[in-house]
Amino acid sequence: MASASIRASASLAQRVAVVTVAVTATHVFKHNVAEFTLCEGPSMMPTFHAQGDIVVVNHTVARGNANDVHVGDVVVAKSPTTPGGNVCKRIMAKEGSEVRIFSETGNTIRRRKGETPKTFVVPRGHVWLQGDNVNNSSDSREYGPVPVALLKGRVDYRVFPFAHYGAVERRIPVSWVKAGFVDDERLDVVSA
Q1: Contact residues for 75 (Cβ-Cβ < 8 A; gap 6+)
Q2: 140 catalytic per annotation
Q3: Residue 164's pLDDT band (cuts 50, 70, 90)
């Protein structure tokens, strides 16, 4: 009888050890390698659906290192305005780059004939984040340049909806060119 009790205790200890290792490995993987996350809302349309797309966020890049990310990359960052929240945006500019913003009317950026834009220079250790849907995005135009330390990772793949499964491209949305944010002669522009 004692031997059965010892075996049951050993079996329970082994199960607890396996579960502990699995939970620890999952936690380490999620916070240091990659995780699935939901990017939802209209700001990244048409790249992502407003109802939400499930994406893979690569945590091995973008964590406090501006050299790991490039203009056109989609990233997930800690929200500069909502504690505990995240934002999913595209990098429009990196440190030292000049960003031109034309006057705002509501949440729509409109370029008026002869208008002089506001010019910002992205400071060292920061990036300029912007949604692909320039007419419906809360981004660096509202909260300014974002410290690289707030970047959680680069969005590499969309896994759901299945019909749109695949790599997320590094590109400049044609909507940014039409709104006058970037010159299509300077950057590789791909329409969505």
Answers
A1: 62, 69, 88, 89, 90, 91, 127, 129, 151, 152, 153, 154, 155
A2: no
A3: confident
Find out whether 47 and 164 touch, Cβ atoms under 8 Å.
no
* Both structure tokens of 106: 């509501």
Task: Render pLDDT for 58-115 as a digit per residue (tens, 0 to 9).
Answer: 888 766 666 778 888 999 999 999 999 999 999 988 888 888 776 654 333 455 566 6
Instruction: Give the 3-state secondary structure of residue 38.
Output: strand
Is-catalytic flag, 89? yes
Q: Which of 9, 11, 30, 43 is catalytic?
A: 43
Number of alpha carbons in the 13 Å side-chain half-sphere of residue 114: 0
Catalytic residue among 3, 11, 79, 89: 89
